């Protein structure tokens, strides 16, 4: 089996994530590797796939006892024989497990670092064909990191005690350059491939909010966002955890608390309830988190400010491990700074350390007050080169420009109201525009309207928001009854005719989740899945998970269920095309789910000929290629960069990159077409002479404001100075 076959057949994926392929290939060549990837970057697969492909057994050293069971459950569920050894096992269990390990029954063994050098394990290890030792959370070896585990320092001793040195691979998400170096030396890695994928988490939406009333803001958020999904609410103190949990429950929210002062049984139960989807919210101090691997946390809200940027990155980073869009919202009130300062003052740190703590705190305070891109602010904290001025996926980037033209949107909405002869309210209109497959819509034949599905890319809430704005602006009249109906007004006609343009605050418009995703220029699955089927599939998943005693996400991620509710796979072949479904997964669950889908289709009389077919997945190389070509075709039509960006739904920066790729592949790109003012070129070239080409920021900084990063990039490309 080659690595692509393994990826598809076992894990059900067609493509590697950034950094994975090289790390895996080098491992398979027998080389030590050190992978630094952000949370959710897919570190586990980097050692799990080679572990299966190599002869012998892989030992995974992991500090997180609470995670071992989930990890092993996941592996067994995709058909990889795996087990763990840690202090949760009884003596008897431990002995039987050693026996089956000795009998070579496993490909992967998870072990806590404290167990490595015990007499019984050392004895066993000498007899095992160990192909690799994989060190997870490798930063635990550093005394400078925040998760130092003395027993990590004992790992080299274990490796050295083996007759034949296995491959050693190390993985971490948190690493400053110094820590990377430390991992390399302390673990004794030999000529390792060091792969650092960066810290960006593109699926996370960052925002700082300064609400008048935090609690009411929170309630509002919880009612309107990710209603069916899990989230963490972090508080600074145990007391706040207690009181906030109580208030949320009183207001009908499904929530539990978690902090270090709780009875440990209750704390464990609360954590399990959260992980196993029995409650929606966990309200916690920073004691909660390390060792939480729940992939489908959709939002992390900081009710109070954390102590510094590193802590914030860690805590907020627990959202969206599965790569789906998720929110990281920090509720800011100046009072929190006072609280954090007090915490620093009242502890007994050295003067030097105290200064450092204040400095770190200040960085976070700046983060809360900046008007610049929040993502960039985080990334530059970690020393990453910032090349793109705005990420288009944080509260600041999305609220920068004041008003946007929504004439087209308004025209679509108004003509929809006209087509249905002014008979329906906000919900129906937005369902029609979004192309909903709800029974009512289909029964009424509204799917035959010419306006059906023409605003698919909007979420329900953002579309409703636009409609409500049009009502407020009197382009739509909303009747004042129990079931209000939308009607046109005298002001509607000029809009429909294109005589009047309509503007709207961008902030409002872009609050919708779909907008966020569009801004990301990532490929997400269609949001327009069948919600009811999705719920039924979730229930089925929960039932199966309970029967097996595993967390629901071990069986399938939400994203996989959404694909099912989009494509309605009803046989093996179709099912296996979904992302994240390997052969064993089909064997274990395929029939339950295909049967459920068939049943749903029958029960609801759904005409399956209308359902979207899954395109056979093409390898990424081709697909990316197609992307560039689409962009290039617009270029050939003579459109400006902004126009292409709009058509392609990407940022201008991305369009420049696409064109650059086309050029690398032999197509001609006349960059001068994009330079509006020839004096700019001179000025930029002079600045480059002065500052060098290492980094763009210094160049940008010595140039006048009006010269943008895009200008600089285009001029560099035009002059063939450097491939970026
Ligand atoms: P990390 O340990 O780096 O935080 P994980 O190993 O838990 O990340 O992986 C994060 C998520 O990404 C998991 O849900 C995993 O199934 C998924 N994943 C890993 N590799 C791929 C891939 N090549 N394609 C798609 N999803 C992947």
Can you describe what's shown?
The chain is of the alpha/beta class and 724 residues long. It has five domains: 3-196, 3-Layer(aba) Sandwich (Rossmann fold); 204-398, Rossmann fold; 403-503, Arc Repressor Mutant, subunit A (Orthogonal Bundle); 523-617, HRDC domain (DNA polymerase, domain 1); 624-718, ATP-dependent DNA helicase RecQ (Arc Repressor Mutant, subunit A), CATH 1.10.10. It contains 35 helices and 17 strands. The strands form four sheets. The chain has a seven-stranded parallel beta sheet, with helices on both faces. Strand 3, helix 5 and strand 4 (108-111) form a beta-alpha-beta unit. Helix 19 packs across helix 21 (460-472), helix 25 (531-548) packs across helix 29 (583-603) and helix 33 (678-691) crosses helix 34 (696-702). The longest helix is centred in the C-terminal third of the chain and has 21 residues, at 583-603. It is globular. The two termini are 35 Å apart. Residues 507-526 and 616-623 have low confidence and may be disordered. The structure holds adenosine-5'-diphosphate (ADP). The site of adenosine-5'-diphosphate (ADP) has 17 residues, from helix 3.
